[in-house]
Amino acid sequence: MNPIRQLIVIVEDDASMGRALQRLLHVSGFDTLLFDSAEAFATATNTPVPHCLVLDVQLPGASGPRFYEQLANQRPPAVFITSHDSPATRSAVTSAGGGELLTKPFVAQDFLDAISRAVLRGPPP
User: Among 29, 35, 38, which Cα is nearest to 6's?
Assistant: First the structure.
């Protein structure tokens, strides 16, 4: 019997970073979908609700925190990633309801731990 693999959606405009995260999650037992912008994810059809979102803070178009704020009531938990950590970035993530923020480059195990915590915690209230 195959256990159901959790779906993680990655929204990352850096293609190499997106592919690296996708590979890491696959070898760690997750299913993934990768989008290069918040708009690409928002307009995708037939996309199942993910168990967790990985959102780059600085995306073209809507930023990761702005996009997350605008999601419907049943928002999945999110892990935010950024190359530009600052008090303003942390404030934007916190205000959006994000509980996890990692600064690039990060250790693979720290990323997987953040995913696990987010999935266990579930969606924000």
Answer: 29
Average pLDDT over residues 33-55: 94
* Structural domain boundaries enclosing 45: 7-121
Has residue 1 been placed in a domain? Answer: no
Nearest to 71 by CA among 104, 22, 38, 47: 38
pLDDT 10s digits, 54-101: 999 999 999 999 999 998 767 899 999 999 999 999 999 999 988 899
Residue 98 within any structural domain of the chain: yes
Whether 37 contacts 13, CB under 8 Å: yes
Longest CA–CA span in the chain (Å) reads 47
Query: What total of structural domains would you count in the chain?
Result: 1
Residue 120 CA to residue 35 CA, distance in Å, equals: 24
Average pLDDT over residues 24-36: 97
| CATH number for 79 | 3.40.50.2300
